[in-house]
Amino acid sequence: MADVNKSAAIQFFRGVDEPVVPDIRITRSRDGRTGQAKFDFEKPEALSPESMGDISGMFMVDEEGEMTTRDVNARFANGSASALEATYTWKTEADFERFMRFAQRYADCNGMGYSQNAGDNAGDNAGPVDSTG
To answer: Which of 8, 12, 109, 122 is deepest in the core (most CB within 10 A)?
Structure first.
């Protein structure tokens, strides 16, 4: 069940928050209009034997609503799924700004900081980073 005290969560099954916090890498086109956020979840609970079935997408849920990507793939080690990789793509500046509002809420909810490469150039990697370890 979703935690009502959280203002942002990632879900692979609707209504079930994924507790594993991913590594997130953001890249943008040179003109800044399009880009991608790549999520890397190591040993997510969504892959546990108790999971609820097939993963059909990744849902980023916050007070503004939901963003969805169907670009989710499992990474395998020794014959079993060990990680999930998801890519969220935006095609407009408004979509990027919406994603960044979600990313900031998600970072705040999970005790993460935010880092950006030196300079403010489009194409730089930027995104929430784990400040606990």
So the answer is: 12
3-class DSSP state of 55: coil
Whether residue 57 lies inside any domain: the answer is: yes
CA-CA distance, 47 to 34, in Å (whole number)? Answer: 30
Q: Does any domain span residue 51?
A: yes
Could you give the CA distance from residue 131 to residue 53 in angstroms, rounded to a whole number?
Answer: 32
Cα 112 from chain centroid?
13
Residues pairing with 40 in the sheet: 23, 85
pLDDT per position as a tens digit, 9-25: 999 999 999 999 999 99
Number of domains in the chain: 1
pTM, full prediction = 0.80
